[in-house]
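ok here's Xanthine dehydrogenase, seq below lol
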Amino acid sequence: MSAANVSRNGNGTGDDVILLSETLFQDITARVSTGAATPPCNASEPQPRPSDLSFTLNGKAVSLPLPTSRISLAEFLRETLHLTGTKLSCEEGGCGACTVLVQTTPSSPFKPVNACLRDIRSCHNQAVVTAEGISQVQAYLQEALADGNGSQCGFCSPGMVASMAALLNNNAKHKKSITKKDVELAISGNICRCTGYRPILDTFEKLVEVHNGHAGAHVCDIEDLAAMKCTSKKAPPLSNNEWVAPTTVDEAVAALREVNPSIAVGGCTGLVGVAKYYSMTASTLPTPRRLVDVQHIEELERIELNQSDLSIGAAVTLEDFHNALIEHTSASAAFTSCANHLLRVATPQVRAVATIAGNVFLTAAYPKFPSDVCLILLSLRATACVIDIATGVMHVETIADLLSRGESASMQVLCVSFSIPLNAKGSDEGAYFIGKIAPRHWNAHAIVNGAVSLPMGALPPSISFGGLVIGYMRCIATENVLRTTKSRSDLNNPALLNAALEALATDLASDAVSDDNRRMALALFYRAYLRALPDGALSPNLATAAKPPVDSRSASAGSVNFEGVTDPTELPISAPHTKLSARLQTSGKAVYGDDEPFPSQGLHAALVLSTEANAAIAAIDTSISCRTEGFCAFYDASELKRRGFKNDVGGGEPLFAEDRIAFHGQPLGIVVSTSRSLAQAAASLVQVSYSDVRKPILTFDDAEAARSYFDVPPTASTIKVGDAEAALAHADIVCQGEVELGGQYHFYMETQNATAVPSEGGQLEVTCTTQGPANAQAALCQVLGKSSALVDVSVRRVGGAYGGKISRNVPVACAAAVAAECLGLPVKLQLDLTSNMRALGSRRPHKAKYAIGLDKSRRIVALKVDVAMLQGAFSDGSFGTPLDVLMGIDGAYNVENWHVRGQIARTNTPPNTYCRAPGFVPGSLIIESAVDAAARAAGMAPEDLRWLNRYTTTSVTPRGEVLKYCSIDKCWDALVAKAGDPKARRAKIEHFNSESRFCKRGLSMAPMRYALFWDGNDMRALVTLGIDGRACIEHSCVEAGQGLNVKVAAVCAASLGIHLDDVTIKKTTTRICSAGSSGTGGSITSENCSAAVEDACEILKARLQPYLTPERTFTEAIRAAMDDQVDLCARGRFLGKPNSLGPAQYQSYGAAMIEAEVDALTGESRIVSAELVIDTGISLNPTVDAGQVQGGFVMALGYLLTEQVEFDHSKNGANVKVGTWEYKPPTAFELPDSFDVTLLPHAPNKQGFLRSKATGEPPLLLGASALFAIKDAIVAMRGDDKPFDLPVPALPSTVHRLCDVDWKRDYTLS
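and the structure came out like this:
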């Protein structure tokens, strides 16, 4: 929609009011609407004229006709008003990229809210502030984050700033100081994949110091947002057939009764967020014809403390519920525990608007939803006051009765309030416990949650668990055992504890409860029992079992030291400059693929994905889909064939499945409609029938049973050096083991998208999220049958990539291009996160069996490994499927005899691909597992065996590389100097463990080696000098957050002798530089692209040499050269050549010492401290390089500890870990408590560009120590020498099982 379509009226400035006409808005609604597409009806009821929807946006009044179907605030901002500072990523309230500020009344605070969940109709009479608005009044927040190196790819940055702005402004309003833990909590709903959070926290904590008055700079002024607040003059309540916003309970009941079916809504977070994961359970429910917005009913928002109860209105938000419990902690011993537990529910953005009643009704409709809120209410014996919608009669129900109404509960009754009895007053807090075990601390649903209430009075005990079965499990037998207790002292009885545990085991004996979950429930009960013991009765070694250290954890802290890694003579190279686009990113002004201007006649597309993993396609029926609103076309494999397109995106992978499905989520075709939401809705209505459905091959075991492997020649699948078998036969110690390493979704915040625009003469311009424009161009030409002269691919930047946009962007780009070619119109295809995860694969999983041998001197004499890599259904596009684990399987260790055999499993799963540090991550984990096992068998500290067998200068790798320079010793020594002697550290840990029965700590110290390859890498650059003396660079590489452009610009400025600010970098396009060039990846792009730019600058300097005289400025010299018609455009090139020392150009080295803590009762783990040292040579930009180390390490923590990719046979081979509800990248809480990074000083790299080294991928290998620190803690818990290997990811259930806790043996009072 062009700007002319929006009229602005008011004070003559044209900026204070935005009015949208009804006719215009109906058109917009058709393009933006997210309501489910349905076939057109022949007749419809007369529609009353909608009320006007009015709210304040960035200080301007917005007025528009009330939409008749849901439009999210994010879509309205982006698609209608083109305010693209609000980013779309997960679209389900789980990532925080879309965070905006919302004020509901003139006197209320601005709250952080997910714009993707917020129905625009719920913004009536409210105020909304986006990144664009923050730029107007509090730009210093955005600038601070940018200048603090807190923005890498930048896609999450506007949301981060909004969350921090809410914290600062609200605390300034109440004149409250802010703690570092407040900062952590404020961004707990914002995911960052790039930075590792540490620079974000450091920046925001400095702002907090300012806010708290500890520094004399800018203090947050609450008046900054005063101009943005909502008006005190309210518009009339909204009302039409689909949406009503009553102001009284009676009006709400009448509105619900008037149209059937109708439901009440408050925050609207459950309608498009969590609920979609449980939609199969509620398939019989009709779609509500009317939504009744109850957030304007004061009666439903009341909080009252009475003599006998705490009354909480049904529409009270989870945030306000938490605040009420904190305010009234003296009224009940349980309130503090419940309030703390609520902070682990959802995110600050969701808690700000989600209501208590909404959560209860969501749980009633979807019993599989493990609601912590309902568990709190059940355990507190709360009751609900409800009104029967049909009769209008008010009555009281228990929470259990309300939940038992099931999926139609919200259509039967309107909840008015909840009553929480104050029966626990006067008792100790230990008599109440609520807890959960989750895959991640914040914003993660419970694996198991439980509440144990022991009131010690007239009321009986209450013990309930969630996550065990559908709904909640009440443990009656256990309650009966504890019913006789009259005081906490009664609990100090071993016989009573044993009887309670036996009863609980009986309560949990259902076949529906898994063994892991049953053990976890028993552990939670044991913790609750210990907490309830009287003061002084708890054995000291059980103190951490009752209250683990994580409960009292301080805010994390960290440091970066890059002293000695810069060269002042090379400025502006080697200086800690901020990324060039950092301030654009934090302010929301940076343009990503979906933000690019889109032609008004453009169309939108959505993919149709398969719902089987191994079946034949019987038929594809679009008869319903093609009759939906806005539908334009559908194209599948048969249409490609009819039009002469080639159905192959590389590696034998079809663009659209033709005859047989190879994996669940495989694209079958593409739907084109007038809006993205309508395209998605139409795609969901395409009916696909299957035949010859077979059991899918999903796992390594499945592949082995079916002998399903890719053909790989022995030369590419085998390493054989020396005689490993003979060496093992004569070894003093031989250890064998098996390691299984899972996949890892890249989780780039910007999902895959592509826009294809046909042009004159058969030309096609494609903008897409790619790391390799040349590769995308080649694939497009192949599919379309066009010359590369007719196809141009461009990309300005990508919002994260990590290898996931090298080849896996190709199917998306080709699908959009095919639709555009067929229609002759622009077509945009932007995948939603779930489709992205279902269709495009992840890091390649590995499984290895190893045998390692030590001689009497404890030298590693041999390593034999059989390793399998799981590729998926197809090879990885045009890149093939290398067994790249062979590159890194030697890690940092000098071993004489090797025998490694590899094979590549072909499965019915999406094609996997490169992911940050491919090959080296699995290789490192495999050899470190073997070394760790061998050390324990030899009775050595693992770090001692590692040191003894490390690579040194002149060592030779299994691939014949001579390590002419090796800095492992320097890194190790620097690490010991920083982190302390490992023996002393172990002594402290052993002391801690001796005093803690179930909470154990472990230590790991390990070196790291990572090889960097230049051979064949081809980078191009065009540098143009303007008449004003400024340089313009166009290069073949892609800025993905790694700081490429600032390094390139610094090299250009230093080479030409100009200021860094006088260098501009344009977007990458195959039309200028990148045709035929290498893609961005392998960590070497920044240095190689910089070399290409330097090459171009040297050419320009040679041309300018006659004009560069002492009398002339640089600008005057340029003008003189132009007068002589000198060409001031120069192309530079870097082409990597073979290295005489081996295939790698150079090696990156480092070392890490990590201390971890394991809670053996729950299996949850955390990193207590992480000290990293890494050799970066003479850094091209130490701030950028340090940020890469922090981000890479935290990404490794996610891979090792919280992120799981899982395909389920019982669900037709589907990936069951899709979306932010199931897939859990780290949040700020998962950072090490202490996180220190040191760049090795005085270590110039003679083999690198300007003596530098790459930093993007090597730091992930340092993360391996986290896994083995956790294993060390598990060993301490087990107390035996029985060998075991720790799989990846080390999830709580796995860690709990390996800790070998037996409740009958171990759960005691001493």
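fwiw Residues 1182-1202 form the longest helix (21 residues). kinda neat tbh
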